[in-house]
Amino acid sequence: MTKQILLSALALLPATAFAQGAFDAYSLSQPDLKGTARFMSMGGAFGALGGDLSTFSQNPAGIGVYRRSEIGITVDLDCQSSKAESFGLTNTTTQTKFLLNNFGGVATYRLNSETCPNINFGFSYNKAASFNRHFGGRVPTLFNSLSNYIAGVTNQEGATVGDLETTDNYDPYNPNDGGYVPQWASILGYDSYLITPQGDNDSPTWVGQWGNGTSGVGNFETLEKGGIDEYNITLGGNISNVVFWGMDFGITDLNYRIETVWGEQLQNAYVDNQGGVAANWDLYNNYRMRGTGFTYRLGLIVKPVQELRLGFAIHTPTWYSIDEDYYGNVNYNYTGENMPRPGYATTNNGYTATNSYNFRSPWKFLASIAGIIGERMILSADYEWTSYSTMKFSEDTREYYYDEDPWYWENGMAKQTRSSIDYNSPYGYTNYDISNYFTKTSTLRLGAEFRVTPQFSLRAGYSYVSSPVKSRVADNMETVYTTGTRPQYVVDKSTNYVTCGLGYRYQKFYIDAAYVWKHRTSDYHAYTPDPANPGIPSPQATITDSNSQIVLSMGFKF
């Protein structure tokens, strides 16, 4: 236990003053049920079936099942609803997105061989994951303040007043800038009077706004956007119509953006060593992550008898090269005796920080079984194992030479000019946090299809994904350290999908429809408990996501 506390405390040191953290790693790797309507209506349980454009990114051996060429496209109408509940107060937000889930094609080349009757080539686009989520609410009773958490972190760092006085060229990602780099949250907290030094400026004790007699409420809002797009190039075939094989090379395109707000309205707060202050402030954060990656997959489907199919697949990690941009600000208004103090403070005096690094997602292993009952019924099941504790960040040693950063924040304040950037930074403590917070997940997918007529089919499915975090993190028994000025984190619990659909075949043309209901519960934490007062709970809320998707696929076989 002492070792854990020590290592967690070390995670606060200047060497880790970066915007990415352990929970950002999960954003890069989280799964989703996306694909064709037939695939989704059967809960994604296609690892032993194949013959579907979605299987390229699941079990590439599915391409070996094809006996004819095919082209297809899938669209998705996603209606999202997120409910936030805290101390009996609830708030529901909704949004609707139209997505392109999948398109692609398979070219079948017949060979004059009974042992190897055909070889198939395929290309597909898949929406591997959608990050779109919007939730917010109010915490009616606070027991502490984020400012006190920032003060506790700053005290553990041993930061002086001089350490927190920034310049225009301050770079929070570079630990060699000025010799010492404190937490960016400490700097922004100092600039916005969230924390106040007491005593000698060279060895101060930092205090927050919460003290004896302080009370208040909190408000929060989170908006996530983006997703992971994957482009697959797949090769496969079959051996004597008994063994089907396939290999896949995937190129991923990552785009993730999160905008967060945490605000507090405090009575009898302590600001700049003055008590009895009405403190109202909001911490805004804008964070954007962009990257590309690649992955490999190998798969087999074995048909020992006509009625049974077994599937196996292995997915290598996705190796990403990532760039990120980060910006935060505090709007504040303090009123009290001799303190009419409204103001605005920004990270790095209004400049955007940029950073680049490499990331490795976890390995995945898939085992599947499917049974064919007569010529009308298909039952299938998949089990997928993923070790999220093996995710890893590493340095990006690339050098960039450009006159301006490639994009701007909407407020026009986030332009930054640089001539050369060389990022060589340690990630050891972040990787330790990954192994400490995350665990292995199990994904179970079940599917069924019943052919009513030779042209018309009914389908149903179910999928379950276990929580990626360890139980002590889910139970709020582990101190979670975040980075930058984004104090909040979200712990996803289990995810359930209930699916159904139907399909129609007319000669070489097919059309499929699916309905997918996704239910996920998460715990929102405004910040981790104050390291100086671990017994005082931090503000929390329960987030319930209930998404309804209507999926439509059309295709042509030839």
What is the strand and helix layout of this fold?
Elements lengths: L1 H9 L11 H6 L9 H5 L28 E17 L2 E22 L7 E13 L2 E7 L6 H12 L26 H8 L4 E3 L6 E3 L7 E25 L3 E29 L2 E32 L2 E8 L3 E17 L5 E6 L6 E8 L3 E10 L3 E11 L4 E4 L3 E2 L20 E2 L5 H10 L2 E12 L4 E10 L5 H4 L14 E18 L2 E17 L14 E18 L1
Antiparallel strand pairs: 1-2, 1-23, 2-3, 3-7, 4-7, 5-6, 7-8, 8-9, 9-10, 9-11, 10-14, 11-12, 11-13, 13-16, 14-15, 15-19, 17-18, 19-20, 20-21, 21-22, 22-23
Describe, in plain words, how this protein is organized in 3D.
This protein has helices at 2-10, 22-27, 37-41, 146-157, 184-191, 428-437, 471-474, and strands spanning 70-86, 89-110, 118-130, 133-139, 196-198, 205-207, 215-239, 243-271, 274-305, 308-315, 319-335, 341-346, 353-360, 364-373, 377-387, 392-395, 399-400, 421-422, 440-451, 456-465, 489-506, 509-525, 540-557. It is mainly beta. The protein has a single domain (2-253, 272-395, 431-557), classed as Outer membrane protein transport protein (OMPP1/FadL/TodX) (Porin, Beta Barrel). The strands form three sheets. It has a 14-stranded antiparallel β-barrel. A two-stranded antiparallel ribbon has the order 5-6. The radius of gyration is 26 Å and the shape is elongated. The model is unreliable at 1-19, 172-181 and 398-425 (pLDDT under 50).
